[in-house]
Design brief:
Radius of gyration of chain A: 26 Å
Shape of chain B: globular
Helix content of chain A: over 70%
Structural class of chain A: mainly alpha
Mean pLDDT of chain B: 90
Distance between the termini of chain A: 43 Å
Helix content of chain B: 25-40%
Largest interface: A-B, 38 and 36 residues
Radius of gyration of chain B: 21 Å
Oligomer: heterodimer
Order of helices and strands of chain B: HEHEHEHEEEEEHEHHEHEHEEHHEHHHEH
Number of helices of chain A: 13
Mean pLDDT of chain A: 88
Low-confidence stretches of chain A: 1-9
Largest sheet of chain B: 8 strands, mixed
Number of strands of chain B: 15
Number of strands of chain A: 2
Structural class of chain B: alpha/beta
Number of helices of chain B: 15
Order of helices and strands of chain A: HHEEHHHHHHHHHHH
Chain lengths: 297, 389
Amino acid sequence: MTATTIPSGSGIPSGPGKSASRWLHRHPRTRLIALIGAPATWMIVLYIGSLASLFLTSLYRLNDDGSGIDKVIGTQNYRTLIDQSVYLDIALRTVKIAVLVTLVDIVLALPIAFFIAKVVGGLWRRLLIASVLVPLWASYLVKAFSWRAIIGSPGGVLDKTFGVSPNYGEVGLIIVLAYLWLPYMIVPIYAGLERLPDSLLDASSDLGAHFGFTFRRVVLPLLFPSIVAGSVFTFSLSLGDYIAVDLVGGKTQVIGSVVYDNFSADLPFAAAFAVVPVIVMVAYILGIRRSGALENL
Amino acid sequence: MKNARYLGALVAMTLLAAACGDDKKSSGEALAAIGEGEKALNLVVWAGYAEDGSTYPEYDWVHPFQDQTGCVVKSKIAATSDEMFQLMGTGDYDGVSASGDASVRLIDAKLVDPVNTALIKNYADLSPFLKDQRYNSSDGKNYGIPHGWGANYLMWRTDVVTTAPDSWSVVFDKGSPYAGKVTAYDAPIYIADAALYLKTAQPDLGIEDPYSLNQAQFDASVALLKDQHSIIGEYWNDYTKTQGAFEQGSTVLGTTWQVIFNLATTNGAPLETVVPKEGATGWSDTWMVSSKAAHPNCMYMWMDYITSPAVQAQVAYYFGEAPANPKACDEINTQFADPTHCDVFKANDSAFAQSIAFWATPRKQCLNGKGSDCVPFSAWIKAWTEIKG
């Protein structure tokens, strides 16, 4: 902005932009609304609103000929979920798969992140970080389909190369989901390790602790919040998946597949079952909060 | 709520439609004459039924239709019959290419209107065994125009299953040597396949029609499928998935469609199919007109267009099915130089077509007219989740 744009003598900035900014300065409330209005609408209408809509739909029921939804509030969908043991089995299986995927990812991510953060440096570190993140650029579907070609038995890549393969089923599914979500675990753990001063490791080693002891008593406690952050990603992503399940899970049914099978035939029932992972996630996050990990993030 | 937000707009639109809908047919009646096109047509279709050249430039029968009639086609692809039914429930569409497991539901729920077949010039040419069937008509009224059909065959890999099976028993045998490599169609309507097998295997159950099952017959079918679950490797409803599994060998035995067999054998898989001695289920698709159609004239023009020999040839050849119009057979030879298509798909074999138990939506009021204590489709849907465990 040069002085020539200001009319001589006035000394006050002018033009429509300037007067708007002056007006906003005098109206702090309008300023606030203009600033957070759009994100707040997004949050309330699309985010909270869709969740509320999901919950409300789960209380409705299908009409007699199945052609539409009767908007009568009732808990019959939840009663079906409780009365029929198959749905509890499916819910428990889904949670089990999500827990196992998370554990596999933690076990894989810790050494990889440690290597990147503490062992290599410079160009190698940047290359390794890039190679962890690059798979995220590829489509989820392409990766899931590739795994279909890898673990199929007989005839899959693993079977042809090594003669053994998990084939389609729960084991194959856990491997594939662990692969898909691994970057979401590595990145927070790597970030946590970066903040961990090398001097702590040196001090521990100077005091005679061997690597395993240092890892258990120094690194892990400090890393715990990062691991928890990663687990929120891997756990929730596994809990909601149904496409990888269809491609590599064999005949495995999870919450997502039942919701998908039912959403067009019986939307209220599908909504009721979709509330289950929401409850599981809320319980999980409340549990984490009690552990204090969220404060340390 | 999404619904509440749109309600106002919907009410306004309905009033508007009612106000300017003088020449529109009233719901529940067939069109008396095809009037001027409404310049638009919204369809719910199976993938491959309304190709506009965006998948393969050489397969385009939507644009010629638009040029001929001025009706601009918007098609919505549905993945399952349930999705078709739900989309038609919105009232946003003029017509649908419904399979039998949706068509009866659509009629019962009054989501589709009777069709005046006299207005469809090509109707007279269509295979007689597809007309006036329970999946496309009701109470003597016709609710749709046949499009194409196919059977659900038993397929196996000849390098693994060395004795050619002639019975569905091989896919229901709990002690099957092929455990973990058996496949089945992934939809509630597959329960009818079990019922069809039990009709012969356990005659004391008294099953006459696999789509009209009383509670005892239904329970027996479900129990059979729960046993079958232990030998299933994976279920399929996406045909590329099962095609790949058969080619690779992770699936060696199970239900299939002719088109899957054709594609997989072209890729070199050693496969064989049969219609087992118990018979087979199958699908016959029907073009139906929505009772809330905003563009009924364009829909009638479409139904006439899609059943014409030249267009039927393109759809049937592209999709891999038997055309409803036998005149398409010569056209397939002319357009694609394939004289065998109709023989392969047994398009003119009326004895074969009549031996197939075509999909039809089960309902409480038994489809075969024998009583009103049949297990309705909603129970089939719930049972299917239980079967898969």
